[in-house]
## 1
Amino acid sequence: MIRSLFPTPVKFSELTQQTDLLQQEVKDLLLCGYNDELRSGINGQRIDITNDLMETGKAEHITQLLTEIQKNIFLFCTEINIKPQYITQSWININPKNSINKRHSHPGSVLSGAYYIKYPSDADSPIGFYRSREFSDYGWNTQSLEENINLQSTFIYTPKENDLLIFPSFLEHDVWPNKSDYERISLSFNTMP
């Protein structure tokens, strides 16, 4: 008998949010000075979504989006049979041309994710997911005789607007350089029970 041990569940969904309203809200927040330096990124901006920000009424559409994301998180938890998870942190990444997010994970949380508010068609800026380095250090990623996702150490996903990804916080990931002249905008989050 062969069993796959330690599978990594990742949920890919498409929401139906009005991304044009979300994009305008992000622009308005930036004009009001709600921005910070990206922590895992280079050459981008970040807006931390705090209770204080949501109470101002300036993030109405973002608040609605977070409610929809929370519903999807609960559904994912049910599907993979884990305790209900709640969003504890969320932030918006604004990535102009050539901006990236370095390879990282999200310690101190259970699930993490990204929702794509704006993804220019010419961005060519996928998100990459990576197995532990030991997987490739021992050569497992080179042993397959044919295409086999179980033996890959990298999974590359090219998102589009309204895509929602939910994944275990330990899963290392990065975002490749934005090749578009237009910004790529995403909302990221972490959860805890």
## 2
Amino acid sequence: MTSQSPMTNNYLATFHSQFGALSLYQNLTDAGIEAELRSVPRSLSSSCGLCLRFQHESWEHIKNATELEAVYAYKIDEKDSYKLLYTT
């Protein structure tokens, strides 16, 4: 991921299914938002094992994403520094 602007935050979304992760990844990249699929960090749980990391000024535009499990804020420079923002 590229360096972030001052108005950009880092988010990590987990999903109940791989389909949900892949669908949101496609939607974000189609909208020009840089995103990357990754394995879920060990400190977080997930039903499907995939998470989506992205940078944006807000996470709320993904609130109704298919199979969304949770959204976390995270700090790039701190390992396993996640703050739960939303859960279904």
## 3
Amino acid sequence: MDRATELIPEVKAFMRGIEGIGNDLCVVLVGSAARETQTENSDVDLLVISKEPTTDLDVPRRVHLVRATYDDFLKQLERGEDFEAWCVRLGVPVHDNGLWSEILARPESKVWPSWRKKVVHGATRLFLASELIEIGDPEASAEELLYTTGHIARGLLLKNNVFPLSRPELEDQVRAIGYPHLAAMHQQLRTNADNDGGDFLRRCQLYSKRLLVHLSAEDYRNCSKEIEKKKRTKLHKKANSK
């Protein structure tokens, strides 16, 4: 076990709980705790990798557990998914039964995440946030806009050949590549700082759309068309059911 993880009580508790099956699992500390940027409100994020799907693991309070099989994790890496890419670049192994070393040696671990996927993820969240703003749910819309701006930040960083770090570190990263307004907006949403309510959320909404179009107008447009298509299908089904 890495010395840094020995100091985290939740990690020690989780490892005690899997003593009988430890040889079947690989455990990696990920998220802000792996970068030592966690706050007192942060969960402890652990990735568990095994040859076969795992169930019935004892998960301590404040531990957020991500499970993956060896094959599925490699597939996600090959597809350019940034969570898996983050894990292989910045994760801290707590217990390696050999699977983690194998993954790090595979060519899939060198695949650069897709910034264009961040446009699609960000646009999807933005459309949901817009709906929530319209129905007057500021708390839920602020949460969706936090995800939106996070996806945008990651997309911009990846496109600029900078690997995104944990959520609290994104702000300094995007400032460094020339997006101070995005950094301030993300920080305000992340920390639930006082704002001017609906006006702030609408500014976030408009600025997020502008950045998504800036990243890829084509991907944003295609995502918009797909969401509108799903809405029409849903309304059509609802009308026919009456």
